[in-house]
Amino acid sequence: MRGAGYDLANCAKHLGVFPRLGVNFWQKMRSKRDSRSRDPIDNLIALFIDGDQVNLDLIASQLSSAFVDAAVEMRLAEKNGDFLISNLCLFPCYGKYIATDKAEKNLSINQVMWLWGESYILGGFVKRSTRRRAIDLGAGSGVHAILASDHCANVLGADVSPRAIAFSNFNAALNERSNTVFILSDLFDSIDGTCDLLIANVPYAPDTAANAGDNFWSGGTDGTDLLRRVVEALPEKLDDDGAAHINSLFPNPPGTKIKDHFDRWLGGRLADWDVLEHTWAVPRYQDLLSDEPYLGDKSAWRFGVVSLRRSPGRKGWWKEVAGKGWFFKNDGSCGVVADHDAY
Q1: Among 89, 174, 306, 328, which is least packed, fewest CB within 10 Å?
Q2: Residue 27: burial class (beta carbons within 10 Å; 0-12, 13-18, 19+)
Q3: Cα–Cα distance measured from residue 252 to residue 41, given in angstroms and rounded to the nearest whole number
Q4: Which long-range contacts link 313-320 to residues 24+ away (Cβ below 8 Å)?
Q5: Whole-number Å distance between alpha carbons of 5 and 338
Q6: Where are the alpha helices (DSSP H) in the chain?
Q7: Is the pLDDT of residue 64 over 90?
Q8: What is the pLDDT of residue 173?
Q9: Please, what are the domains in the chain?
Q10: What is the pLDDT of residues 151-208, one digit of tens each?
Q11: In the Cβ-directed half-sphere of 230, how many Cα atoms lie within 13 Å?
Q12: Residue pLDDT, tens place only, 301-329
């Protein structure tokens, strides 16, 4: 697939304004693009992103019959008469390939979240410094653990879903990662020790129809059940020289800010931390997954990444550094890195 050009830059060219690659769940947001059956990248997007079937002989001639055989043997795809179809998504992501469940709601299984735009934002925001141990909470497909494996000696991914652990292990093998381990754990409950890099993208949508963590989107009634627990654990679980990057919806009640809640969850010790807030307002947030989505006042709601490190002199600061315009470059890469030392 790399040889055929199925990578982030070429997908960005084919799909238009990035990160359309990660929002194909919404039909109205899918790029209007011409079908170019003679283009192998277009066929791979159709097969692994859009969920369409592609002509078997055509894709074999474009890539190779060995590719078709390998995809079928690895259960990335299956033959259906004269066509090749896939029951999962396969996303290029910063040099890696990440398999997920198909990008459509399916309540018959506990779905593993496909890559949204937020997956690429969080993947790009993390400062890729050399680290001893990374922990990825709410690992899902394992994407953030696998990205961390390039610059961390050891990586631990945790999720409450056995299906997520299975996908994570598959993706680690697919990307030939040997320093990643995935375990069943309710956040930190089954994790010993600390880390110097914490990455968290736990379920965050307010949902009265599902408990927090029952699926990949529910954060409980107010959306913060899991987010709060992650932040509360930082003083104990993050090393003194560590950094945490937390991607979430922040469903703030009217008149409040993210900073208010973090201060409370950190026991009033927010001054112990240097914080970069890369978030933006989402007052028209629409949850298309919850059976009973939140219908109240969303005027103070925000979305994005909050990055924290311990303040060396316990004279911490909080800087709102939301990007202006698009986060992504024309080649699909993220143009923003959460770098505390730059502020």
Answers
A1: 174
A2: exposed
A3: 41
A4: 314/271, 314/272, 315/271, 316/270, 316/271, 316/272, 316/273, 316/274, 316/275, 317/274, 317/275, 317/343, 318/259, 318/270, 318/275, 318/277, 319/275, 319/276, 319/277, 319/343, 320/277, 320/279
A5: 29
A6: 8-15, 40-45, 56-62, 65-73, 117-125, 143-148, 162-174, 225-237, 258-265
A7: yes
A8: 97
A9: 8-86 (no CATH), 106-342 (3.40.50.150)
A10: 999 999 999 999 999 999 999 999 999 999 999 999 999 999 999 999 999 999 999 9
A11: 29
A12: 999 999 999 998 889 999 998 755 568 88
Cβ distance 199 to 248 under 8 Å? no
Give the span between the Cα atoms of 215 and 24, in whole angstroms.
19
Q: How far apart are CA 296 and CA 294, in angstroms?
A: 6
Q: Give me 295's structure tokens.
A: 């219908």
DSSP state of 48: I
Q: In this structure, what token pair is assigned to residue 232? A: 């509360």
Find how far residue 171's CA is from the centre of its chain: 14
pTM equals 0.94
Residue type at 326 in one-letter notation:
W
Cβ atoms < 10 Å from Cβ of 264:
14
Distance CA 83, CA 131 (A): 45
Q: Helices 225-237 and 258-265, interaxial angle, to 10°? A: 50
Looking at the chain, the whole-number percentage of residues with pLDDT higher than 70 is: 92
Tell me the pLDDT tens digit for each residue of 116-146. Answer: 889 999 999 999 999 999 999 999 999 999 9
Count other Cβ atoms within 10 Å, centred on residue 68.
17
CB 107 within 8 A of CB 128: no
Q: Which of the four pLDDT bands, split at 50, 70 and 90, describes residue 330?
A: confident
| Measured distance CA(143)–CA(41) in Å, rounded | 22
